[in-house]
Structures are given as structure tokens and as C-alpha cells.
Amino acid sequence: MPIRDLKDQIGRLPVQPGVYLYSNGAGETIYVGRATVLRDRVRSYLGAYGSSPKTDALLDEIAALEVVVTDSVVEALALENNLIKQRVPRYNILLRDDKNYPYLQVTTTETFPRVLVARRVARDGNFYAGPFLPASFARKTMSLTHRLFGMRSCNEVITGKRGRPCLEYDIKRCIAPCVDTLCGEEEYGRAVARTRLFLEGRNDELLAELRTRMQNASDGLQYEQAAQFRDAIRTVEALRDRRQKMATARLGDRDAFGVKVGPEGAIVQVFQMRGGRVVERIELAAAGEDAPRDGEAEVVRAALQQFYADRAVPPQIHLPVALDREEDAALAGWLERRAGRRVRLHVPRRGDARGLLELAARNAGLAYEARYGEEAQAHGAALDELRAALGLPARPRRVECFDISTIQGAESVASMVVCEDGAMRRNEYRKYRIRNAAPARPDDFAAMEEVVLRRYRRLLEQGGPFPDLVIVDGGKGQLSAAYKAFEQLGLANLVAIGIAKREELLVTRDRPDPIALPRSSGALRLVQRIRDEAHRFAVTFHRRARAMRDLRSELDAVPGIGPARRRLLLERFGSAANVRRASRDELRAVVGARLAEALRAHFAA
Length: 605
What we know:
alpha+beta; 5 domains; 7-stranded mixed β-sheet; 19 strands; about 600 residues; GIY-YIG endonuclease
């Protein structure tokens, strides 16, 4: 085993508490642990081979060892938690939050980073801030990074050689690193650094700067700009105050952890009780390479550390399994330091506390089945097949699909539906009336470009979430129209495909020939299901639009005639044709002299 090459170094380790870090041959940290006695804990790995597949894989990969001595076990636990968050080592459990609360991701792995809304913290080397409660604060904060620091929102590959910046530069929401004469890499790096300080909560200097800029704008009579700075100050202060409020919890509050561990991963359900009522349910999940193999105790330990790193700590925490005495004392000490008071970790055996714990456990079991059951695995297999067929870099978890519905250009409408992890998200569906449609010359391509442009311009303003794949109902023409809209918004790296109805072929931009998936293909059935749902939604909206058109009256075109006066005229004369034949005096008796003249002028035209 490679770890035996470190035997001499292990024998010289201090007999003190601290943190140990294992690295692989590439210098990457692959595991972070803590110990009451560093020498004894690390020496135990020399005889650990065969205890579990995860431990065996770790031991086979260890190439270097580093230790950090601390004054106490509690300090070691805090340091361990910070190092796991910063370095995201592969063999530590990383429990990802469910989709209740979003994070903000700064894509520091890119030369010109962006700020994106993320639902999960990933092991990708990027910077994450959050979670944000409520979710709307995440998008407000991201929008603030565009307005204050000029962070880009596009997904283009930045070379600095673009001919001119996009719309975001014109409306002062980006400093345009795509044009090197406007913004170089060094200047953009300073904007990224200020953004990170802001997201880390170091806002005192930022608030002072914003107040100064607001006052200067006001003194210069630039009141609209001053109002923008005022709104920015309020958002920053709200974020700061919210974080401060979350640092306290009333006595009598408690959290209960339910755990379900299986071959596919682990689910943790946390029920938060405040004031005697369950006020929140939060789900954490570990899957794939994060899936634990050493039982519930390992999951509970990781969940406690990661869950309370950014949340208030209640006086009581109910656990499904007991931790060993040393582990319990260290975690309790760390939590008490964070809470500023005593925190009790225990396994309830009876009463209401036991009932709450069993409720959390049942919900964890149901969530495990929903996430890793047969239906979820079938959806995952279809998405993986689609990824392979299209050559995508990752599984297309979020798919958006567009369809146009019209009859010879009349009442042209469009629909957009969303599928996430194989499930349709009906609350995120959108419908559009085509604004630039010409009845004499119906143009599906122009309609598709308009709708895609409107959809993703709005997403840019909101900060996402952007889809992993866009589907348009149609062939090369509709697909080209979608990409034309992407390019106008600086989103040329979004991936879109078309699906032709009759042949059911997948059309891509980069391949001259369409992709023909087998009729039995799960990926094809998934694409068809999404396309059919978009078509159903568009046709339903189109029928409603036609019905509304048929209910309209010619009187609606007369300025000043609204629903109430239209009803009076139809009740008095019986039809629009009779209104046309009515005399000036008859009309004046119903709607007055001014509108009577307007009606006469309209029918005379």
C-alpha cells in the first residue's frame, strides 16, 4: 500500500489534537480528517486495509500527508470543516442541499468568471456563497453583482476580440471583458475580487461606497441612478440583517435528523421545530462518489458539520444513532461555540421527540425512493443516453422546449415548457403572444427567434437558471432562429436541438445529418414527451386566444369605448351593425357628444 511509504513520517507525528490531510500523486487533497491524538489516528490507517471499499480506494491513492496542530479538538473540528469546504476532497462526504435554498456560484475556474445561481455545491473548484433564504435574495444579490461590479452574465468564451459589446454593456450591467479595449483581464479580476468580498459578507466598506455614490448622484441631479444605489443599499442591508438574525435561536427549539443510507447514496431529512411547530424541512443528499459506505454514523457526523456551518444551532438536536463519546463531545463543543450556549445531542427513545425523529426518518426513506428509485433511474438513464447521443459535456438535467402555434399567421402564440431530471415543472411553463407576427406573411422562424430572445433576455435579468439543453419544435430553420437569438444575447454557448415531427429526427447545428435514435430509445421517448407537452400547451393557449378574438367587437377599436360603454351600446342597439346605422342624437343619448362623434368618425372611415 502507498501509505506504508509514509510510516516513518507517521511515527514522528505529534501527540496532540489537529487535522490531517491526505493528498494524491497530483498534489490534490483527497481526504481531510481530525484527531484527538494525531499520531494514533493516522497510524490506525496502516492496518485499515479491507475495512471498506471506500477506505481501500483511499489507501491506494494516498501519496502525501500533511498535518495541522490545534489547541483543542473543538478547534480541530472547526478547521476540518473549513478545509473540507475549501478543498472539497473526494473521499469526504459532501452532502448537497435540496432545491429549497439556492447558492451563488462564482465560476473562478474560468478566466473571466461569472456569477450564477446554483442549487447544489459541487466539487468543481468554483467559489460558492449561501445558502440564500428566501431564494429571491439570491437573484437580487446576483443582479447586484452585475450593476455594482459589472460581472458578465453571458456564457461566451471570452477572447477580448469581439467587435462590439452586447446589450448588457449598453445598460451598464457589464464592463465588457469581451472587448479588450474596454476591459482587460486585470481590471476584470479586480471586479471579481470585489464580488467575492461582497458575497462573503464583508459589506461595511461596500455600504460606505454605495452611500457616497448615491449622494454624488443625487447632488448631480441624477435621481434615477441615485434610486438604483438606494435600492442596492437596501438589498445589502437586508442580506446583512438576515444573516445576523439567523445567528440566534429561541430556547425550546430543536432539529431532528432522519437518515436513509442505501447502495445508491444517502438522504438526510432535517425537520426544524421552532416554537413547538415544524416550520421547515430540508433535504441533504450524497450520491455517486460522495455516497457513504460506512453506515449512518458517518453520514450523521458529516451532516451535522455541513448543515450547521451556515445555519443557526438550536438548543437540542435529535439524532437517529448515537455517536461515540469522543465524537459527541467534540461536535457538541463546536456547536456550542457557534451557538454561544449549551447544545444537547441525543437519541430520543420515547415521547414526542421520538415521534418527530421517526417522522424525519420516514420522509428520508420516501425521498430516497423518489431520488434513487426505478423511475428516477430510468429518467437518469434516458438523460445519459441523450447526453451521449448529442456529445454534451454533462447530463442535461434541465431541458426547455419551445413550440409555435398559428393558423395562417392569425393569433400566433408560443409555449415554453421545462423538464428537470425527467419530470415536467408545470409551475415554470410560460406562454407568449407573438408581437411581430404579420397575418399576411406568417413566419415561424421569426416567431421562434422572437420568443427565444424574450425568454433568455428575461433569464439574463433574473440570473437564470439557464437550461442544459434547449429543444425547438422544427428543423434547421427554427434551430437557426434560436441560435440567432442566443448570439444577440451573448449566450452562443447554449446548446439547442430541433426535432422534426414526421421522421422524429434530432437536428443539431454542428452535424450536417440529423440524428436518428432507435424507436425504442429512452432518450427519444423523453424528447418526444417534452415536445408533445410543449405542443399541447401551445395549442391550448392558441384555442383560448382564438376564442377571445371571436368575442371581440368592432366597437373595441373605437378610442374611449371600453367594456362598460360597449355593453351599454349593444344593450341599447342590439348589434354593432345597428350602432353603425344609429343617428348622432341616438348615440349622444347613450355615450355623450364626444364619443358619439368618435363612433361616427370610426364608421365613416
